[in-house]
């Protein structure tokens, strides 16, 4: 049975996402007709059972690199050795950096809470290294009840960071507008993937979510725990879903914050969900601007304003604003769509309206966000998802249908970055593992109604994918609800679920 819970905080607020100290988080997924990876790099994928994992030998944690503070003095660190390729459990191994913050009230200890902050590409050990941080850490009550366990996923951070030649794609078009540009993008993406295999070795082909979920179970075994609780954020929700598919009986509780779509959507559905979310966020801004004089576009139809801006961009007459009027720098439709995604999805409504007004009048300042996806994310997402697009004609057709679904913004730039970043990737998508037999605990999913990175439709599908799940939503714009501030109610809901004595 699935239940839905909703909360409705002050709709005027639209903060950027908070992050735990030293975490580098963010984004999500995509790909085209890809070439088969070398057999030596991508071995056959199947379930594997490794030899028993020896107990963890904890020691002091390494000091942090400036400007980050040193970890909590209560934190402990270790490395757990796991098979590089879980299809060959007795083959070469790789090390996973793990950190622990022990429960401060051992008499009331529930067990282990393992976490992942998303990304992909974020050093997840920080969740334990800074567990008691007063701003980004856990509440004292949670610290009393759990051993907090964080880890850097394979190929990330202190778990042997993958290396690639990122200069290879410098000549690629971020938004291909011709057959030649699209094919060049695919070719350069393939060369980039091959450079990862050369510089990193076979590990580059085994950074997918299933492999990380199996690493998580190896960490559980090394801890000597029969079951774990897990809290995943953003891409971390995908890892939680994979762990639940593979090891249902080893979960005490599963909380998923800002949830990915677990159903492997194709490129069009992925782009559509994200783009409609941004379009709806614009409509939300328009409704606020109708009522609030704090909006720089108060009194104007904000959706009509963006339609006008796109018409000017298409005509080649939209210019970047300046202190006294329009500059000579042209703003094309892709620049405008990219701006709208991040201004609406990550900024405050006041600031988004101010910058839109600057574009509309030609006077003021606009902050442009860089486009593209980092290599660490590609190494993970291009294996976990199948967004392959046959050719440029299909790509243009998808773009046109997405623009019809989200007419005032045209597309979600972050989603498009991920789709294009995986085109031509030479390590093919990995099949979704079969669901293992076993009983799952009731699952909790929490999500914002307007989330540019993990849109609400995907969170709903995540909740429906479990036999028993609750979906808690907050009527806010943003990503990652488990934090203090505007969305602290979600944090309290998650904490109450995780500490439930019936769990």
Describe this structure in words.
The chain has helices spanning 126-129, 140-145, 179-200, 209-223, 235-246, 267-291, 302-315, 333-346, 349-361, 375-384, 392-405, 413-421, 456-464, 488-498; strands at 2-7, 75-83, 93-101, 111-116, 146-151, 228-233, 251-257, 443-450, 469-477. The protein has 503 residues and is an alpha/beta fold. The chain has a domain at 2-29 and 53-165 and 209-263 and 440-498: Rossmann fold. Strands 1-9-8-7-6-4-5-3-2 form a nine-stranded mixed beta sheet, with helices on both faces.
Q: What is the compact description of this entry?
A:
The protein is built from 14 helices and 9 strands.
Helix segment tally: 14
User: Percent of residues in beta strands?
Assistant: 5-15%
Radius of gyration, in angstroms, nearest whole number: 23 Å
The name of the CATH superfamily of the domain at 2-29 and 53-165 and 209-263 and 440-498 reads Alpha/Beta hydrolase fold, catalytic domain
The CATH class of the domain at 2-29 and 53-165 and 209-263 and 440-498 turns out to be Alpha Beta
**Mean pLDDT, nearest integer?**
90
CATH architecture assignment name of the domain at 2-29 and 53-165 and 209-263 and 440-498:
3-Layer(aba) Sandwich
H/E series, N to C?
EEEEHHEHHEHEHHHHHHHEHEH
Largest sheet: 9 strands, mixed
Secondary-structure-based class equals alpha/beta
**Termini separation:** 17 Å
Strand order of the largest sheet: 1-9-8-7-6-4-5-3-2
Which fold name is given in CATH as the topology of the domain at 2-29 and 53-165 and 209-263 and 440-498? Rossmann fold
Low-confidence stretches: 8-48
């Amino acid at each position: 049975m699935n239940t839905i819970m909703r909360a409705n905080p002050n709709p005027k607020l639209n903060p950027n996402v908070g992050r735990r100290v030293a975490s580098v988080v963010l984004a999500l997924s995509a790909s085209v007709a890809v070439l088969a990876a070398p057999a030596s790099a991508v071995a056959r994928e199947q379930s594997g059972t490794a030899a028993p994992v020896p107990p963890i030998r904890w020691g002091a944690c390494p000091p942090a690199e400036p400007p980050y503070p040193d970890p909590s003095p209560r934190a402990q660190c270790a490395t757990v050795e796991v098979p590089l390729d879980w299809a060959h459990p007795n083959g070469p191994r790789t090390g996973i950096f793990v950190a622990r913050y022990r429960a401060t009230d051992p008499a009331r200890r529930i067990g282990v809470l393992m976490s992942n902050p998303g990304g992909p590409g974020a050093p997840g050990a920080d969740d334990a290294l800074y567990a008691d941080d007063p701003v980004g850490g856990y509440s004292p009550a949670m610290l009393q009840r759990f051993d907090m366990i964080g880890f850097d996923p394979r190929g990330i951070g202190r778990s042997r960071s993958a290396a690639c030649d990122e200069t290879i794609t410098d000549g690629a078009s971020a938004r291909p507008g011709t057959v030649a540009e699209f094919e060049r993008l695919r070719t350069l993406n393939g060369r980039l993937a091959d450079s990862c295999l050369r510089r990193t070795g076979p590990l580059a082909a085994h950074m997918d979510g299933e492999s990380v979920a199996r690493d998580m179970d190896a960490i559980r075994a090394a801890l000597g725990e029969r079951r774990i609780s897990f809290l995943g954020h953003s891409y971390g929700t995908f890892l939680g879903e994979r762990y639940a598919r593979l090891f249902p009986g080893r979960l005490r509780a599963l909380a998923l914050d800002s949830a990915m779509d677990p159903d492997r959507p194709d490129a069009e559905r992925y782009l559509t969900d994200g783009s409609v979310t941004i379009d709806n966020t614009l409509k939300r801004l328009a409704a606020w601007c109708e009522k609030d004089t704090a909006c720089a576009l108060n009194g104007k139809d904000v959706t009509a304003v963006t339609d006008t801006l796109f018409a000017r961009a298409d005509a080649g007459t939209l210019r970047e604003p300046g202190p006294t009027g329009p500059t000579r720098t042209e703003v094309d439709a892709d620049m405008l769509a990219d701006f709208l995604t991040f201004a609406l999805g990550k900024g405050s409504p006041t600031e988004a309206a101010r910058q839109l007004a600057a574009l509309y009048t030609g006077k003021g300042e606009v902050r442009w966000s860089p486009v593209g996806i980092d290599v660490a994310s590609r190494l993970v997402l291009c294996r976990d998802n199948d967004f392959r697009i046959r050719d440029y004609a299909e790509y243009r057709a998808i773009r046109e249908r997405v623009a019809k679904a989200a007419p005032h913004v045209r597309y979600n730039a972050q989603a498009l970055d991920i789709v294009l970043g995986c085109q031509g990737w030479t390590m093919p998508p990995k099949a979704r593992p079969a669901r293992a037999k076993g009983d799952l605990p009731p699952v909790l999913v929490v999500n914002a109604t307007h989330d540019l990175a993990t849109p609400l439709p995907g969170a709903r599908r995540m909740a429906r994918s479990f036999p028993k799940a609750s979906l808690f939503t907050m009527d806010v714009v943003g990503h990652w609800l488990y934090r203090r501030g505007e969305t602290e109610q979600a944090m309290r809901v998650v904490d109450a679920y995780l500490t439930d004595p019936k769990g």
